[in-house]
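Ticket closed. Logging final result for pyruvate kinase.
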Amino acid sequence: LGAETLPSLNVSNHRLDVQFDNVEEAIAMSAMYAANHLKGVTAIITMTESGRTALMTSRISSGLPIFAMSRHERTLNLTALYRGVTPVHFDSAADGVVAAHEAVNLLRDKGYLVSGDLVIVTQGDVMSTVGSTNTTRILTVE
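Final structure:
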């Protein structure tokens, strides 16, 4: 068998031996760990006010697209500079899993995702609070 026929696995030792400074960093790193180890994941979605979670996820190689979803133009402009991150305007009055599904549906409607895709979503319990990322969800696109 040639090496090109074997499945590849992205393994990162980034901050493996260091404790995380905050919950937001732990969520970002756990999302990227799942993205690199769960078969079938096609994208990472960071629902972000400041862009910080998108920045942290972009530091880990995965080969997967990262979507930074925000209602703030400044945040979208900033995340456009991050490696592998595509900024997408998203403004929802919903919180929690409802907002996550709205974000996934928006990306599907824009053609970034297709039905059946497996995606990882990071978000906070309250959408409008900077630094509140505390949740990772794994969702299947409908």
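The helical segments are 23-37, 52-58, 73-79, 96-109. No further action required.
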